[in-house]
């Protein structure tokens, strides 16, 4: 039987996409009675709404109606949140706005142009309030309070103690500490948010098309807000989504807004977000302040860590936050064997836009501080950075490895991957080149980073936001379920329905590869149905496209569903031929007797028999071939009473080496080469894997050098277009060398782990380490991103002033 799993098969999606036959959200819902929506947004970061007068807008020809917060308040409930702070968040502002871009009213008209014109006719009176955007200042007693009923700007606060940290610090030879700031940035997919909502009054049901990518736990949150049973909110996800990178989970308030507007106005409502709206109001990662200190021995061994994490979730904490704060909780010590750990975690609210999932969510913030402190340790102890990493990496013989906070790293050989990165990048040779270049006035640097990449989030991880006592008052949460259905029609063709809401990653291709190998049929006979429909698809609350979960969870569900079909075909054949199942083999479209290949059945005939002649099936076997499998690994347990949590199912590893040159005249950082080594277990399709790595790396480069959703000190948004919000384009992507090592996961049937987020998490700190290394002779500390020429120029000038100061 031909092996196709693990091969670099070309993508089955590309033909329709490259020929313009994709089906995206904007291709849907264009009927004669559809109303097209525009959203009026707040120009103020913090203000009371005194009045809203839509009179002139409603009078305009072609306008179907205007809906405000007061109109919806009796029809929707505030969205539930995963913390105890009583934050009330509605899809339209009611009484008060808390960030620039917050929706204030929605206008529906015969077309978008009319809706936009009408929007300008709405008169809103505001009473401005003091605003706050600084993470640390927002928790001070004199800070403006965003939510009076909460009483503070702290949405969540937890403390965690693992091991004996006090002893580790008492016995340390050195204590190395620093404060790091990580910026708020987003993902900028080509396709922005989109919703087509249609209220069916006959059945009190909302039928909604949206490019929402999950997690589908939020479907229940939306249904609760709309005050309908969850089966009355039908979400249908288009076959094609033009990118997400996490942030399309933040679409859910607009799904509710368009749904309730459809009900109130009596027509389908379509809304497509524009780019300015997307930058100001969609979703982003959290900006974070981290205080980190390490207890260190003379040889560079780290024995304990203390971390204070302060995440800015924006004006409202909304589901699935505080995900960014806790998603990496189990891998808080990264790739290192550090047995003692204290964490104090805050999710705070400011007058910025709300946050949510973004590729690597929480990882880039976390590793920026952890990997920067490892380099700082090397500097303060006069050791090479590579030696400090080697001293602390988890050893191969320690796997499966349990971290201080409860993570169970399933497999790995971190040392081998790290050494491969150094060898590929010719680390020692670059050090020599760097020394020579410095003599000639050139500024070169090399940065290293080693990270653990979690994949397949355990639904229980978010409950560490609650104390053990608080968790006893709610339903325990665990698991990382994913589902798939494999069916075979009477002519032997196969349909596979998946629920991972693909957003361009190639799920259809890999799903076809898996089923092709398990059933021994060509990929061309396999049709992948990727349109998730909550009324007809197999799904769970965990379903969706986030947390790099397809490789570890989605592929496993597909594999086991295909195995169920295979087993049924084998049992039918055994019954027909009068042999035992163990005597049979599969190959070339037949199931045959191993020792007598002439005795065989075509798979096509077996499928026909199951449909056309069910009385010939073995006793007790149901007719037809339609198998669904829900997969969830046992490793995804709830947190225990000591706050130990295995927050993901599988854990990959990434080792990066990046070299940079800084132009002393322009302060521009140029990446010379980027070397990255990934251990993601068994690769399902190396070609697609490398594409995912390149995408993650581009995102990480953006976070390191260019991207920031910037606000001034008064809360005004400054980066509302691509003129101000800079993203890397093709010319900015450096030379990249990708290498792979494989430590198959023992937890997944194919040994696969996720890898779509790794370099998004590692690149910002790897590049920061390279820049810090380049500027080490000037005693410049890199503790903030992005590393724009302006920021580097300022640091260079400050260093010069110190040298010339009397």
TrEMBL record:
Keyword Oxidoreductase included in the entry's annotation: yes
Pfam families tied to this protein: Ald_Xan_dh_C, MoCoBD_1, MoCoBD_2
InterPro entries reported in the protein's UniProt record: Ald_Oxase/Xan_DH_a/b (IPR000674), Ald_Oxase/Xan_DH_a/b_sf (IPR036856), Ald_Oxase/xanthine_DH-like (IPR016208), AldOxase/xan_DH_MoCoBD1 (IPR008274), AldOxase/xan_DH_MoCoBD2 (IPR046867), AldOxase/xan_DH_Mopterin-bd_sf (IPR037165)
Alphabetically ordered keywords of this record: Molybdenum, Oxidoreductase
Domain Aldehyde oxidase/xanthine dehydrogenase a/b hammerhead per the UniProt entry, residue ranges: 19-130
Gene Ontology molecular functions: iron ion binding; oxidoreductase activity
PANTHER family hit by this protein: ALDEHYDE OXIDASE 1-RELATED (PTHR11908:SF132), XANTHINE DEHYDROGENASE (PTHR11908)
Protein name (record): Xanthine dehydrogenase family protein molybdopterin-binding subunit
The species this protein was found in: Peribacillus frigoritolerans
């Amino acid at each position: 039987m031909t092996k196709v799993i693990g091969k670099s098969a070309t993508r089955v999606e590309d033909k329709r996409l490259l020929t313009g036959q994709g089906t995206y959200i904007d291709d849907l819902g264009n009927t004669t009675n559809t109303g097209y929506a525009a959203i009026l947004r707040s120009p103020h970061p913090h203000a009371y709404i005194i009045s809203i007068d839509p009179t002139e807008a409603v009078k305009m020809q072609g306008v179907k109606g205007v809906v405000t917060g007061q109109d919806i308040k009796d029809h929707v409930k505030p969205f539930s949140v995963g913390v105890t702070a009583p934050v009330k968040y509605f899809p339209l502002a009611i009484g008060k706005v808390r960030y620039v871009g917050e929706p204030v009213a929605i206008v529906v008209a015969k077309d978008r142009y009319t809706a936009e014109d009408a929007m300008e006719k709405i008169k809103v009176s505001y009473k401005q309030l003091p605003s706050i955007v600084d993470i640390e200042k927002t928790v001070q007693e004199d800070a403006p309070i965003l939510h009076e009923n909460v009483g503070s700007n702290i949405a969540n606060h937890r403390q965690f103690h693992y091991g004996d940290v006090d002893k580790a610090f008492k016995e340390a030879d050195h204590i190395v500490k620093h404060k790091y700031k990580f910026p708020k940035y987003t993902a900028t997919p080509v396709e922005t948010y989109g919703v087509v909502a249609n209220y069916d009054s006959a059945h009190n049901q909302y039928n909604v098309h949206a490019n929402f990518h999950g997690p589908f736990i939020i479907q229940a949150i939306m249904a609760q807000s709309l005050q309908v049973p969850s089966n009355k909110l039908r979400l249908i996800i288009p076959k094609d989504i033009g990118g997400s990178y996490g942030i399309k989970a933040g679409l859910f308030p607009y799904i509710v807004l368009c749904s309730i507007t459809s009900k109130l106005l009596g027509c389908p409502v379509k809304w497509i977000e524009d780019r300015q709206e997307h930058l100001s109001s969609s979703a982003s990662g959290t900006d974070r302040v981290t205080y980190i200190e390490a207890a260190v021995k003379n040889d560079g061994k780290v024995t304990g860590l203390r971390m204070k994490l302060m995440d800015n979730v924006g004006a409202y904490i909304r589901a699935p936050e505080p995900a960014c704060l806790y998603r990496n909780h189990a891998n808080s010590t990264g790739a290192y064997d550090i047995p003692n750990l204290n964490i104090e975690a805050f999710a705070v609210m400011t007058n910025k836009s709300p946050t949510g999932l973004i590729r690597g969510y929480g990882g880039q913030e976390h590793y920026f501080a952890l990997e920067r402190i490892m380099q700082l340790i090397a500097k303060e102890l006069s050791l090479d950075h590579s030696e400090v990493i080697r001293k602390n990496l988890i050893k191969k013989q320690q796997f499966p490895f349990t971290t201080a906070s409860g993570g169970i790293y399933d497999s790995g050989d971190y040392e081998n991957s790290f050494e491969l990165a150094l060898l590929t990048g010719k680390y020692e040779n670059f050090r020599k080149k760097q020394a020579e270049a410095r003599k000639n006035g050139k500024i070169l640097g090399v940065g290293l980073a080693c990270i653990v990449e979690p994949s397949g989030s355990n639904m229980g991880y978010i409950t560490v936001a609650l104390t053990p006592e608080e968790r006893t008052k709610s339903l325990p949460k665990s698991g990382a379920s994913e589902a798939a259905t494999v069916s075979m029609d009477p002519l032997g063709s196969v349909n596979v329905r998946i629920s991972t809401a693909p957003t361009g990653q190639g799920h259809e291709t890999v799903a076809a590869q898996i089923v092709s190998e398990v059933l021994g049929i060509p990929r061309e006979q396999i049709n992948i149905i990727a349109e998730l429909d909550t009324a007809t698809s197999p799904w769970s609350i965990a379903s969706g496209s986030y947390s790099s979960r397809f490789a570890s969870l989605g592929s496993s569900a597909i594999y086991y569903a295909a195995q169920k079909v295979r087993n049924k075909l084998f049992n039918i054949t055994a019954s027909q031929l009068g042999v035992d199942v163990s005597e049979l083999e599969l190959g070339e479209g037949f199931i045959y007797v191993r020792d007598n290949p002439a005795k065989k059945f075509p798979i096509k005939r077996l499928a026909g028999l199951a449909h056309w002649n069910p009385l010939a099936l073995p006793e007790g076997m149901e007719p037809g071939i339609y198998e669904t499998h829900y997969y969830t690994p046992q490793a995804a347990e709830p947190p225990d009473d000591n706050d130990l949590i295995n927050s993901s199912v599988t854990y990959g590893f990434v080792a990066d080496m990046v070299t940079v040159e800084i132009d002393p005249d322009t302060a521009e950082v140029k990446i010379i080469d980027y070397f990255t080594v990934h251990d993601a277990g068994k690769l399902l399709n190396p070609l697609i894997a490398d594409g995912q790595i390149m995408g993650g790396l581009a995102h990480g480069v953006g976070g390191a050098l260019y991207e920031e959703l910037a606000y001034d000190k008064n809360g005004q948004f400054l980066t509302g277009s691509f003129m101000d919000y800079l993203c890397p384009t093709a010319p900015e992507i450096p030379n990249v060398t990708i290498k792979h090592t494989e430590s198959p996961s023992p937890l997944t049937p194919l040994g696969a782990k996720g890898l779509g987020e790794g370099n998004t998490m590692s690149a910002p700190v790897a590049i920061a380490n390279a820049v810090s290394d380049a500027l080490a002779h000037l005693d410049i500390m890199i503790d903030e991103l992005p590393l724009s020429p302006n920021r580097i120029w300022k640091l260079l000038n400050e260093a010069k002033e110190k040298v010339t100061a009397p």
